[in-house]
Specification:
This protein has six helices and eight strands. With 235 residues, the protein is α+β, with helices and mostly antiparallel strands.
Length: 235
């Protein structure tokens, strides 16, 4: 679904605003610049001068469209998606094949509070903030939010990673428009000119070429007493 992709890209702009990227300051979350689109944390993302690096990774994991009921018309549908926001405190680990990035495996209570604060920032920005209005334009309602923690209880290890799963009812794709389908077109217009999300939506638009409807030649209407109705002439 195109709307589900737009939902993720709009969230990236809110969590990593273009203005903050250009200024190098003013990021709204502890992750700062490290808001990743559909990929895992890499070693290059980690600041080795600090005990750990807060990182957010966004993934669109599920999406679908269904009729609202057994007697609904073809256009009376509900659309939904699941946006996964993976929040972690990442560090560089090593194994026999070299270095790799992974969430810190520690029971540090201070680190746990940092992770909880990072998750709270995400929820506030998407649900309540002024900047989150663009994201909420796509979301008809948030059905529920799951917080999935990671741990290895058999060896007493807690991993500093939490996945927030936003189950959302969203606007369906509307193809009855010229150019980029809605609601993508509206989101595209709202995004800053140099934003990462806008560039991705522009790339998406370049792959989308809807059918061109034939032009109507003429419509002739006669209301005289001997004419049974309207006559429509097509090419």
């Amino acid at each position: 679904m195109l709307a589900a992709e737009a939902l993720r890209l709009a969230a990236i702009e809110i969590l990593r605003p273009t203005a903050a990227v250009e200024a190098g300051t003013g990021f709204p979350t502890l992750a700062g610049l490290n808001v990743l689109d559909s990929r895992e944390t890499a070693v290059e993302d980690i600041d080795r001068s600090k005990p750990y690096t807060p990182i957010l990774a966004l993934h669109t994991t599920e999406a679908g469209v269904a009729l609202r009921g057994p007697l609904s018309s073809a256009n009376d549908v509900s659309a939904d998606t699941v946006l996964d926001v993976v929040a972690e405190l990442a560090v560089v680990e090593q194994d026999g094949q070299g270095e790799f990035a992974f969430a810190a495996a520690t029971t540090d209570p201070e680190a746990r509070l940092v992770l909880a604060a990072l998750c709270a920032q995400v929820r506030y920005l998407l649900e309540r903030s002024q900047s989150g209005g663009m994201w909420r334009y796509l979301v008809q309602r948030i059905v529920n939010i799951e917080y999935q923690s990671f741990a290895a209880p058999e060896i007493g290890v807690r991993i500093q990673r939490t996945t927030m799963r936003f189950h959302c009812e969203i606007r369906d794709d509307d193809f009855e428009v010229v150019g980029l389908p809605e609601p993508l077109a509206t989101i595209y217009a709202k995004l800053p000119a140099q934003s990462y999300a806008k560039a991705k939506l522009a790339a998406l638009a370049s792959h989308f070429s809807p059918d061109v409807l034939p032009s109507l030649d003429r419509v002739t209407i006669d209301t005289g007493p001997n004419f049974p109705g309207a006559q429509v002439n097509f090419p």
